[in-house]
Amino acid sequence: MGRLVVVSNRVPAPRDRLQPAGGLAVALRSALKEGSCLWFGWSGQQVSEKVGHDHAVNVDTVENITYATIDLTHAEYDGFYQKYSNGILWPLCHYRAGLMDYERKDQIIYQNVNEMFARKLLPLLQPGDQIWIHDYHLFPLGQALRDLGVAAPIGFFLHIPFPPWSLMRALPEAHSLLRSMQAYDVIGVQTEDDARNMNDGFSMVGATAKAEVFPIGIDPDSFAKQAADGLANLEVQRLKESLRGKPFIIGVDRLDYSKGLPERFRGYEVFLERYPEHRGKVVYLQVAPVSRGNVPEYRALRQELDAAAGRINGTYGEFDWTPIRYLTHSVPRTLLASFYRLADVALVTPLRDGMNLVAKEYVAAQDKADPGVLILSRFAGAAPDMEAALMVNPHDADEIADALHKALTMPNGERQARWDHLEPDVWRVTALTWARDFIQALGKARSA
């Protein structure tokens, strides 16, 4: 059995390599424990565009994993990462084509960086390797490796949604991008909708349908233990004391326009308008760490949320009660697990999401004798397998308001029954089964 070679835009920082914090690192933790592995990608560092810069590869081994990283120049970071990956592909894949700001030079930089990744990875490969490439930053990397003569099995997994052809065709060079993906032996996506959209796109450009569904999960046993064990943590106790026995609503999302945060705040505002009996008697904590803060759309989103939180708190707040507790900095994962366990309601209402693991983490964290209620967007990738949640259309503020009232007044018997229906799927589809199933499919491609 050869090595598993993982390629992603970002490689875990040295401080996170023993205790992973990022989503991909956490999901891959179990799969990477077995055998020898190589993880290749960007270090997260930028360097100046000096003459002769050759993207030196920095290699470091921790336990059984060799981490190989390269730095990007400022121009590469701007064109490849900021403008094309996050300014073009991210909004397009989240059905927001109107937010694209396309310039051909950024597409050229994106392609050039993918080709540079291929050149730098090539000398590190060994006979028998299986290559697993992750996410939208690296769509063309498989073809770039094939162009260099790499014959190893190459798989690709897309962690975010994939749009229908009617939207995808808005991308200049969409035909070329989709055709380049024929270089992959296995292509994985999160949901049946994503697979159908991608395969329809392949059909439109005369390519073979290759997308298959490999839903991602969490490590529920570990997360449940973390949630229960952390209740004694002093900061968790501080939060519990501050609630003073009030029902607790939680939302945890990266600050991004795909997460439906303005719509969620509006739903909570309508909830306070329509159900005045809850005023002063409920606590809503929204954790929304700022990301991509130098991108205009994200700055505008933060200003919109700041204004909405101020308006709601100004309108409904009392001298001893703040309707929304709103944080724009991250909270450690260890604390969040116990915060979820304390929460009576979780608001998970993205406008569009690949999977959304917060929904699964919330279910895993619950006390099955007294579980909370999950309110979930119909447009989250997790929705088809979590039908026992209270499903809402995130664009409908009244529906969010009604769901909040129903969740906060739901008897324990119904809450337990809903959790009993949610629990099996969270434990059935895990991070380990996701990685195992994909790697097995890639192994079969090798045999074929």
TrEMBL record:
The keyword tRNA-binding does not apply. Pathway: Glycan biosynthesis; trehalose biosynthesis. It catalyses: D-glucose 6-phosphate + UDP-alpha-D-glucose = alpha,alpha-trehalose 6-phosphate + UDP + H(+). Belongs to the glycosyltransferase 20 family. InterPro entries: Glyco_trans_20. SUPFAM superfamilies: UDP-Glycosyltransferase/glycogen phosphorylase. Its EC number is 2.4.1.15. Keywords: Glycosyltransferase, Transferase. One of its GO terms (molecular function) is alpha,alpha-trehalose-phosphate synthase (UDP-forming) activity. This is Trehalose-6-phosphate synthase. The gene is ostA.
